[in-house]
Amino acid sequence: MAAVADAPRTRCGYIPSELIKSFEKVLVESGTVATGKALHFATDMVCSGAFSILIPAIWNHAIIHVGLASPRIIVYLKKRLAEIDEMMKKLPDETLYATEEFQIRVGELILVLRDAPTRSVVPWPKVGAETHNEGWLKAAASATESAVVRKVWRPEGDTPVLRTAGSELCKAITDGSTEKALFWVKWLFEEEGRIKKDVKGASLTTVDRGGKKASGTGGFIINLYAEIYKELAAKQLVRMHEEFQALMNTWRTPDAGLGSAKKYILVLMTQILCEVPRWKVPAAPSLIKDPVAMSRAIREVPKFFREVLAYDPVRVSILKGFKVKAEKAKKVETVNQMDAFDRALEAYFARM
User: Fold this and answer.
1) Using CA atoms, how far apart are residues 269 and 132, in angstroms rounded to an integer?
2) DSSP 65
3) pLDDT digit string (tens) for 145-169?
4) Is 0.90 surpassed by the pTM of this model?
5) 52 CB-near residues (< 8 Å, 6+ apart)
6) Where do the structural domains in the chain lie, given as residue ranges?
7) How many alpha carbons fall within 13 Å on the CB side of residue 302?
């Protein structure tokens, strides 16, 4: 009890970890009360000098809960978060919090997240350990090599495994099978992790596809996806150019605070390639349902800041406590079915 009592608190007196949980909860709830709570929680965290703690929850909601319902959310987030970051660098904290332009930027961000249509991202499929045994790929593969694979696969540095699995991935996308496509994406990352573990320095590819951030198995898949998108766009089967490019950029250079949501970027890209060509209108749905209502709501944002700023500034930074907590949580991380895949993806991003 003493530890809780002594824990750093936000400006309004909340324990930061509990505030984040409450914020994540109200983001997915409907109604004006939930909107008010989301604005209050976000405002308190921001005015307590801990906006960075909110960012993983914001990305998580955008990618996992909005996702294909409006991929435009990714373009919006990258722009808005960059603007807020620039403002935070220019002004002293208390001056910044009292600046209406800053208040509107933060408030609009939360309101757009709340207003965006939702569609939960599809889960990664299971990939059995037996699929990584010698000979399995040869027996399971049936797809013929596509023109897309021939453009991307490089004999001087890519293994035949990439060509075979890449062909299967292309076929799954052509068939519109998101689950099969994701199976092959996950299989490739796990296979890469397996051979690296077995043989130090081994890899499915040694091709430099535009520098460290664009290389490796992830670079091969992204280049494959880029070519597939070009073919679909040429046929007018998909019109999400800016959204798809934003996802590619986010994969290659993850934004600060992207957190665990980063491994679902490829899921969203896969969904776009598999599902959007079958839509009646293959373009990104509107991000804001009612612009007039949104404008009204934004005008109320400064009130939330005034309420929070009426409290004294925090005396002890809550950022340090979060860092320590995150490090402890990492030490007791449990192993699950996704562990090998997670490690492969984490290793990929760590090389950036």
Assistant:
1) 25
2) I
3) 989 999 999 999 999 999 999 999 9
4) no
5) 256, 257, 319
6) 7-117+285-317, 129-282+337-350
7) 8
Q: Which of 278, 345, 306 is nearest to 39 (CA)?
A: 306
The residues, any chain, with a CB within 8 Å of residue 30's CB and separated by 6 or more, are none
| Phi, psi of 91, rounded to the nearest 5 degrees | -120, 150
Q: What percent of the chain has pLDDT over 90?
A: 70
Amino acid at 159: T
CB neighbourhood size of 169 (10 A): 30
Count how many residues are written for the chain: 352
How many angstroms separate the CA atoms of 351 and 216, rounded?
10
Q: What amino acid is encoded at 315 in this protein?
A: R
pLDDT digits (tens, 9 = 90+) for 96-136: 999 999 999 999 999 999 999 999 889 999 999 999 987 89
What are the structure tokens assigned to 288, written together? 């804001």
> Mean pLDDT score of the chain, rounded to an integer?
88
